[in-house]
Recover the amino acids of this structure.
């Protein structure tokens, strides 16, 4: 679905401020996957995702979407952008229309769809992110921060992109709001079977929803694997300044104490189950 | 595209020009501008240019930077010089259809080009070598005597500081919003004039909204730190003038009188 070949991007090339943000990235993301992208601030994750819909042209290397080079001669970047929807960080600042419905409709209208089709998509997207119908005719500027964020996310979902990329969609939200938005994104993924890329720096969030995790470090891909495989490398991940989920840490410490327990635990639910099994084995719980 | 704007940019350094007192630099720049517009002869103009060249070499800035600062005003220069060439009366040198190129026209437009370029270069030299905060401080101090006649010198300086401070922030913000709308299929550089103007709405409205938000936040932050105008406010860094400042000022005054003398002399001869 998404493939990059030796993708490299250098900021301010030829000036003293030169900085390579993405370095020689070879990536292959399967269709329909839910991928969590994780890395430090400045690890190149935001730069990488902006390449995937052609907002940034690589300094060298190539990006293929559906096997097509997006900077190829016969490819219109605008079509690529409808195929690969990108939700930026703090997307609520891009809202501009008079009503919520009109703002969500901006993307689909740009696609040249009929009015009916746009309307259905707006309603559908609004319901995915949990915006009640009576909000649709209100001004988006009257809404709360969390609601505005959901309007902005719906605006991209309404284009029904084959790939949905979200750059830290939960930044600045309270824990409840985070859970709600991530749940809705996961629901969208399940229903639409589209590929979802979720950029985050919270391992907890990524561990809970992603099928695969891409760890970026200093502009390079550190690893790209399933969560259990990634979290078994807890020490290496700690060495590049990222942390594994807290439960995984706890289990690592338990192992250090000599308790023979599995190391690939990364959600609280699974942790409870594992501990239960362990104790049952030992015959301490009936 | 937005990254090319260098207005108000400051390039830190440690040259003589960088170290001059900003108030004197402002005065000297003003003197340079007077030189440019007072001289009506080529020798006079040349003296002004020599003055600029000395200052420029002393500043240690790269010539490339100066050329870059010219970019945005090239269209203005071309338009004014073309108008001048064709519409100033004088002895015709060449005529095409109804248009005549006259000796006076050529002369005036030549002057105009040199003056405009030198004007931009001179003021760029000032902003490139002086940090915006120091510069507005200097403006405030120079204008302070006017506060006796209720001229809001401090407020003006504060407004300039804030405006300059937010130029890069707003550029960055514009860039972000443009990317976000492009990701939703906005077409910014194709279509008819009205289409393009309409395509700007999704960029301008979020930009205005965020500017108001920033203004509110800034006002609140200033009030939290008990800002209440210029009255009784002291500076962390005060501007200090020394021998080199007076020397630089004298040199520029010398050049100014040279320009004046040459002009008067030539006019007297002619």
């Amino acid at each position: 679905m998404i493939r990059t070949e030796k993708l490299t991007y250098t900021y301010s090339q030829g000036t003293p401020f030169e900085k390579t943000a993405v370095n020689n990235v070879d990536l292959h993301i399967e269709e329909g996957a839910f991928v969590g992208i994780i890395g430090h601030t400045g690890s190149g994750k935001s730069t990488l995702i902006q390449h995937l819909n052609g907002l940034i042209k690589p300094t060298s290397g190539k990006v293929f979407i559906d096997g097509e080079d997006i900077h190829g001669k016969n490819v219109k970047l605008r079509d690529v952008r409808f195929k690969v929807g990108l939700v930026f960080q703090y997307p609520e600042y891009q809202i501009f229309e008079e009503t919520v419905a009109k703002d969500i409709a901006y993307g689909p209208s740009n696609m040249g769809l009929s009015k009916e089709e746009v309307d259905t998509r707006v309603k559908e997207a609004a319901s995915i992110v949990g915006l009640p119908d009576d909000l649709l005719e209100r001004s988006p500027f009257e809404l709360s921060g969390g609601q505005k964020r959901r309007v902005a996310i719906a605006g991209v979902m309404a284009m029904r992109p084959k790939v949905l990329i979200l750059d830290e969609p939960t930044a600045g939200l309270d824990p409840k709001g985070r859970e709600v938005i991530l749940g809705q994104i996961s629901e969208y993924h399940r229903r639409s079977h589209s590929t979802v890329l979720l950029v985050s720096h919270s391992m907890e969030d990524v561990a809970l929803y992603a099928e695969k995790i891409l760890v970026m470090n200093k502009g390079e891909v550190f690893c790209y694997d399933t969560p259990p495989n990634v979290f078994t490398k807890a020490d290496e991940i700690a060495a590049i300044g990222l942390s594994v989920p807290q439960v995984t840490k706890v289990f690592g410490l338990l192992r250090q104490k000599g308790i023979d327990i599995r190391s690939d635990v990364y959600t609280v639910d699974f942790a409870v189950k594992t501990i239960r099994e362990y104790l049952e084995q030992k015959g301490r719980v009936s | 595209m937005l990254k090319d704007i260098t207005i108000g940019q400051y390039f830190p350094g440690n040259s003589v020009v960088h170290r001059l007192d900003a108030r004197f630099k402002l005065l000297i720049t003003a003197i340079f501008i007077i030189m440019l517009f007072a001289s009506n002869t080529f020798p006079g103009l040349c003296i002004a240019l020599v003055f600029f060249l000395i200052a420029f070499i002393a500043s240690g800035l790269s010539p490339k930077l100066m050329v870059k600062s010219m970019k945005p005003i090239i269209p203005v220069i071309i338009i004014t010089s073309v108008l001048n060439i064709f519409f100033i009366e004088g002895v015709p040198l060449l005529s095409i259809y109804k248009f005549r190129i006259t000796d006076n026209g050529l002369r005036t437009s030549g002057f105009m080009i040199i003056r405009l370029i030198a004007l931009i270069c001179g003021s760029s030299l000032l902003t490139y070598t002086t940090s915006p905060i120091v510069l507005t401080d200097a403006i405030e101090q120079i204008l302070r005597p006017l506060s006796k006649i209720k001229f809001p010198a401090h407020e003006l300086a504060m407004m300039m500081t804030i405006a300059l401070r937010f130029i890069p922030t707003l550029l960055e913000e514009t860039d972000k919003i443009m990317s976000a709308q492009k990701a939703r299929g906005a077409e910014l550089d194709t279509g008819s004039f009205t289409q393009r103007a309409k395509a700007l709405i999704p960029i301008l409205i979020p930009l205005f909204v965020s500017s108001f938000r920033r203004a509110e936040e800034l006002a609140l932050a200033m009030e939290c730190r008990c800002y209440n105008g210029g009255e009784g406010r002291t500076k962390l860094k005060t501007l200090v003038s020394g021998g080199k400042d007076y020397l630089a000022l004298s040199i520029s005054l010398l050049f100014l009188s040279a320009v004046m003398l040459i002009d008067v002399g030539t006019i007297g001869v002619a």
User: Anything to note?
Assistant: Chain A touches chain B at residues 50, 53, 55, 78, 81-82, 85-88, 91, 93-96, 106-107, 110-111, 141, 155-156, 159 (CB under 8 Å).
